[in-house]
Amino acid sequence: MAIEDRLRLLLLAPTGFFADYGCHVRIRGQAESLQARGHKVLLCTYPGGRDVPGVLSVRPPLWPRKQEMPVGSSWLKLALDLALAPTALAAALRFRPHVIHAYLHEGALIGSVLAQLLGCPLVFDYQGSLVEEMLDHSFISSSSRVLPLLRRLERGINSRPAVLLASSKHAARLVTQAQDLSAVTVGTLPDSVDPDRFHPPLDSEQATLAEVRQGLSIAPTNQLVVYLGLLAEYQGIDLLLQAARIVVKAAPHLRPHFLVMGFPFVEHYRRMAIDMGLSGQVTFTGKVRYEDAPRYLALGQVAVAPKLSATEGSGKLLNYMAMALPVAAFDTAVHREYLGEMGVYAPAGDAGALATAVISLLRQPADAARRGRALRQSAIERYSWSHAAAEIESVYRQVMSASQSAS
């Protein structure tokens, strides 16, 4: 039997899709770009989130659509997964997918059962360690008695797919070092970006950007340092605010202002900034819709990446890069993988060094602009969604061919 040109793809996303951060952007970008290549996509996801025009989704019934979905590890996810599993099964029986593409470990676990029942291959979109995420979110402690059990569960899930696609080379190395995956093909599928959506501001957009800045009560003479992502300790937000205080005190002549965009815990960090004496130098926007992100990022002169996680990806970097923003980042393997020599780095966890990196970019606008242009070019050449879709499609063909040969 020939492998079809147009595939039916069941995407399992155990998260409140669509929300404006991280893995949601990855899922959306992949779904839209695969559909653009002619494939039929059906997304099974949690009840929360908002529908994306053009992406067909199914959600568990009898669960309030407006209920806030958890971000990160949560006991509520166990109930949501129990609701998602039968919904995904019913959808799969109707849809009869050629390939099941699962996100997050919960999705891979559900997907492995469906793949066995339907006799189709499973591709696991691996975005970091399940257990390490729980530790990062302080959901469990390193001394927890259930930790060994959870690690065994994670290893079992990792061994189930035909292909495991890690979001970075570093993540691929970590997962293969952690266990024997000789029966699983481990590949790398970096986060990506739409460089037509995220691009440096045009002259025709300057009036609109001035209105956005005015609406945020930020003076036109301020130089903006921008951050867009989740607000949490493991994302480095506490350290970002410490760095902001150092920058403001050390370089007041540069008129620095920090624009911190994202959620949750907005009020927590706003109070922290006030307590640190930064009420006039840091603006919190709260959640920014994905569709609005480019114009907010366009206000920035410098972007900052303070994330500390050693296992997760850092998709926000691709948005910064496509906007031609120079980036000050903590020196992690994932940040190095994307930014290369064009990033300006600080030792991970060192707020003072991060402040120095920010100041160096603000003080040297010509060098900062050179770095930004190079980063955008890299995003266009290596990290576009169309490029990612072609790689995913190739993986699908390989796993389908192997599945048919085995049968």
Quickly describe the structure.
With 407 residues, this protein is of the alpha/beta class. The chain has helices at residues 22-36, 76-95, 104-118, 130-136, 147-158, 169-178, 206-215, 237-250, 266-275, 293-297, 316-322, 333-339, 351-363, 365-382, 385-406, and strands at 8-13, 40-45, 56-58, 99-103, 122-126, 163-166, 185-188, 223-228, 256-261, 282-286, 302-305, 327-330, 344-346. The radius of gyration is 21 Å and the shape is globular.
Give an overview in words.
It is a single chain. By secondary structure, the protein is α/β, with parallel strands linked by helices. It is built from 15 helices and 13 strands. It has helices at 22-36, 76-95, 104-118, 130-136, 147-158, 169-178, 206-215, 237-250, 266-275, 293-297, 316-322, 333-339, 351-363, 365-382, 385-406, and strands at 8-13, 40-45, 56-58, 99-103, 122-126, 163-166, 185-188, 223-228, 256-261, 282-286, 302-305, 327-330, 344-346. Strands 3-2-1-4-5-6-7 form a 7-stranded parallel sheet, sandwiched between helices. A 6-stranded parallel sheet has the order 10-9-8-11-12-13, sandwiched between helices. Helix 12 links the parallel strand 12 (327-330) and strand 13 (344-346). Helix 1 (22-36) packs across helix 15. The chain starts with 7 loop residues before the first strand and ends with a helix.
